[in-house]
Structures are given as C-alpha cells and as structure tokens.
Amino acid sequence: MYDIIIAGAGPAGLSAAIYGVRAGKKILLLEANVYGGQIMSASDVENYPGILRITGYELAENLCRQAKDLGAELKYEKVLGIREKEGVKCVQTSRSEYDCRSVILATGTRNRRLQVEREEELTGSGISYCAVCDGAFYRGKDTAVVGGGNTALEDAVFLSEYCRTVYLIHRRAKFRGEESLAEVLRAKENIQFILESQVVCLNGTSHLQSILIKDNHTGGTRELFVSALFIAVGQEPDNRAFSNLVALDEHGYIRAAEDCLTSAKGVFTAGDCRTKQVRQLTTAAADGAAAALAACSYLNKLTAAPA
C-alpha cells in the first residue's frame, strides 16, 4: 500500500515525489516512457532560478536521482486507469495494479501532430519531434522546422549548428516565440524563413525526401527537398484514461487551480496536464510541490479522522 502514487516522472512528478518522501510518505512514481519528460530534449536550460546553465538531461538526471535517493520508488509502467476499491484507489498500469491512498496526476503533455498524411508512417524516417535527439543524424544536410513558438525557434537554432540549410516554416507572419530567439535566427546565414505557409504533403518512400509547402495567401505550392522535418507545433494532454475520475476542460486538460485539487477526493494534479496559463519548467516544479503538500494534508486528515 502506497501513500501517494504519482503518474508521470517529469519535473512536476519528480518534484512531487521529493516533497512527498520528505514528508515521510511512501511514494511510487509510474512513468510510461523516460523520466524527466520533455525537458530531457532541451539542449540548454537557462531559465531555472539559481542554475545559470544546465542541459535538460542533466537537470532531469539530478531530479530523478534526488527523488530516488530520498526513498521514492520508480517503475516504468503506463497508467491505464484508476478506480476506487474498498476505500482505496487502485491504479491500473500496463503491467500490474497498485493500491494507494492518494494519487497525483502529472502526465504532462505530448507533441501535437501536424495532421498531414503519412506523418505517422514517416516518423523516425525523416519526421521527428525532437531536434536535440535526432538533429545530429542530419549533419551537413537540408532540414526544415515547422512551428512558431519557442520550441520551434530553439530547434532551428540547434539545427543550424549541424545542417547545411534550415527552413523555418510558420503559418503566420510573426513568430509566437521570444523576439530574442528570432533575432538570433535572423543573424544566421543558413536559416531561411518561410512564413504564412504550411506543410501540406510529405514525399518519400521509406524515408522523407521532400515536403510540399502551400502559401496561405496565393494558394500556390512549392517543393522543398529536405532530409528531415522537425515538427514543433505545440503540445496536447493525454488525460483520456482519467476522464471517468476527474473533470477535464474542452481541450482535455485536468480542471484544477493553483491548489492542484481535482474534482475527485484524494486525486491531485500537477504540471502541464492541468488547466493553467503558463506552462514552464518552474511552474511544473511549483505544481509538484503544491500537489504533494496537498496530498500530504489530505492523508494526514485521513489518519487523524476518528474510526
């Protein structure tokens, strides 16, 4: 029997585990993929208070080691659902079932798909959602990035160090990302902007060979011969497994305020998977602390309640 089971071992989940074990609770972290979440793919983190500069991998490694050294247990299993069972919560995973008194949902978000035909088929064969992970494979080649936020701009900066030419494609006339990043890109000779355009077709047999770009104003198309397309068009939650347990908003995010309380008693949430205005590394860590402390308060009240 665990006191708290945390679904997701990203910055929010790991922070929750650290606060939970320090409060003397028995903690189980369940992670479907790899600890650290999407921060693992960040080449440099320069906006975490107190740390001048660190790679995403190093930060995730430090968080995970800290949680485990303090006593948190980590298992690589995907959470498929949660049900009530004889006064406790039963967490069902891809491998087993675990009982606990409270749950923290910290499942983060996943990369939004471009929704272009053959996207899934060519993923891993020229289509990628992680420039840091796969960019070095395309050293000296022509590549493209699609998106207009910070992730897309950062991906283009990273790829410019490896690739011959990087095309940055965005459906609007102005980027949503930080202007300082856009200025860095404008100063690079091997980056070409293709604005007010969108990718409409992916070409290639076993590997991506070219993409078709459509101009949003004229409707005209042009073919770009690239070895890889890095897709950075935002994130989306994957909370369907919990829709029978907690309230979700129209976009699939778990409804919760800064207190990280969900609509279900004993179930809390933290990080990018919940409704919030700002989704950053620091806010994920803050959510983890808030959710863990809320769960501990809930558990302490259960213990103090008269039989």
- The shape, in one word, is elongated
Structural class: alpha/beta
Q: What does the radius of gyration come to?
A: 21 Å
Question: Uncertain regions: pLDDT < 50 for 5+ in a row?
Answer: none
SSE pattern: EHEHEEEEEHEHEHEHEEEEEEEH
Mean pLDDT: 95
Number of continuous helical runs = 7
Tell me the span between the first and last alpha carbons.
19 Å
Question: What fraction of residues sit in β-strands?
Answer: 25-35%
Largest sheet: 7 strands, mixed
Based on DSSP secondary structure assignment, what is the total number of beta strands?
17
How helix-rich are the residues, as a percent range?
25-40%
Brief account:
With 307 residues, the chain is an alpha/beta fold. It has helices at residues 11-22, 56-70, 119-122, 131-134, 150-160, 179-186, 281-304, and strands at residues 2-7, 27-30, 73-75, 79-85, 88-93, 97-105, 110-111, 127-128, 142-146, 165-170, 191-195, 197-203, 210-215, 221-224, 228-231, 235-236, 267-269.
Characterization of this structure:
Helices cover 25% and strands 26% of the residues. The chain is an alpha/beta fold and 307 residues long. The strands form four sheets. Strands 1, 2, 3, 4, 5, 6 and 17 form a seven-stranded mixed sheet that branches. The longest helix is centred in the C-terminal third of the chain and has 24 residues, at 281-304. The relative contact order is 0.18. The mean pLDDT is 95.
